[in-house]
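Fig. S4 source data, part A: sequence.
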Amino acid sequence: MGLLWVSKSKRNPLRVMMPTYEVNPEMPRAPGEPGILLSCREEMCKNGPWTLFVKVGEIKAVRWNYAGEYISQTVGRMSKEDFHSQDAAVCG
């Protein structure tokens, strides 16, 4: 899915997601848009919202843009066979 990071602040921790379009082609494209992230990381559905950053630019000039605050929820389960039927970039 990409990087998940939680700050160490006990008072108001920042929760950050940094997925990529190569692995999550249906993730949000602009702030506030809905989307789908494939992940086995159960902590994404806890203690939201999560701050989403999306990768922009070429390999030599990478930049991460703020894309909004999101609350994650499980919308389904994917079998091993379903996962392996995804594009090669998604399966890694």
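Fig. S4 source data, part B ends here. The longest helix spans residues 80-84.
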